[in-house]
Amino acid sequence: MQKRTYQLMLLSLVFLSCSGQVNERARNEKHPPIGGGCDGCELMYIGMPEQLHAVDTSPGWNEKGQKLVVTGTVFQLDGKTPAPGIIIYYWQTDHNGYYTPVPGMDQRVKRHGHIRGWVKTGENGEYTIRTIRPAPYPDDVLPAHIHLSVKEPDIANEYYTDEINFDDDPLLIPHFKKYPQENRGGSGIVRILLKDRLQIAAHDIILGLNIPGYPKKITAATRSGRSIGEDQPSFTPFHAVGPDKDSQTCPVCKYGRYHGIVYFVGNRPDWKAVKNWLQFLDGESEEHKNYLKVYFVYANDNGYNKEERQAELEKLGTELHIKHVALTFVPSFYDKETEVHVNKINPDAANTFIIYKHRRIIDKYIDLAPTPENFKMLSKDKTKGNFFDLAEPVHD
Predict the structure, then answer these.
(1) Which of 22, 23, 195, 296 is most deeply buried (CB count within 10 A of its CB)?
(2) Rounded CA separation 267/222 (Å)
(3) What CATH number is given for 238-378 in this structure?
(4) Per residue in 385-396, pLDDT tens?
(5) Helix, strand or coil, per DSSP, at residue 124
(6) CA distance linking residue 70 with residue 68, whole number of Å
(7) Does residue 47 come out as left (phi exceeding 0), alpha (psi in the -120 to 50 range) or beta?
(8) What are phi and psi of 210, to 5 degrees?
(9) Which residue range or ranges hold the Intradiol ring-cleavage dioxygenases domain (predicted)?
(10) pTM for the whole thing?
């Protein structure tokens, strides 16, 4: 009798356990976690200190390897408002490409290795991680990377953003050809700068950007252009006026180290406004010529003729005495031969301004009128970064 009672109790426990798993699975399917779940992100809470700071030094900093400083700002979804109080958890390989544990580590986090840590953004949304540069996995094709998991105070669960990858890593381009960036939180690609023997990488994060199920939304009357936080893509417009006249040159490919403004105009050109903007931008280019590049990209596909469009922009450049702004054109914003389509520009917008810093889009404006207030807004010198004068490593 006792044996039968024990068997019934076991069956009851199994039933309750299975029932609980089914109910939990049903809840997750009905209310999936923000970001779609993350393998390993939940480990961020194990060993997390009670007091977190905006600057963290990883256990790898004093070990063998190339010293690396990752620094940036976390922004709200608009890409412009700094986000304080955001927890970033990071974990990475050592200089040999392994997630090496150390004695005394919690068994649950050994797979993340001992080079792991946390920062909490300050009042201005900034953070800094002092670590070493991770090595790629031995005998593998994955590029070297640093994992990131983000926890916002008013979001139910943590979610992962794009891993930090390095633009000088020879494994990067072959990998992205097979597995393109998701741009979760913005582009994960960082561009290394050198300060003595130290490598510095600027990396901003846009909360919620390309994160599935993210509850906060931005409403815009007109949509045009890639998001703030993503990389300014390569494309090859025809140059009618400027240093690359009569060529088909990619602006960020040739002048990627510079910072710049790309001024797009499509099927609704207001030539009075265009002329006012170009005169203002040419003056900005003169004032900041040591680091600023400006491009006008015209793409009116109504009655397009290449020779006529070239002559039209040449005449415009002569009329306005343009000295610094590159006047360029493409057949339309959907054109795939020039690859301008990857910019995602709305041809019916009056204009789209993309402002980038070291290839990364840091601001964007749509349907912007040439008023003194808007001139002042664009002349706030947003494009020059803190590390512009630092050298880059030599790589292909």
Answers:
(1) 296
(2) 15
(3) 3.40.30.10
(4) 677 677 777 765
(5) coil
(6) 6
(7) left
(8) 60, 30
(9) 60-174
(10) 0.87
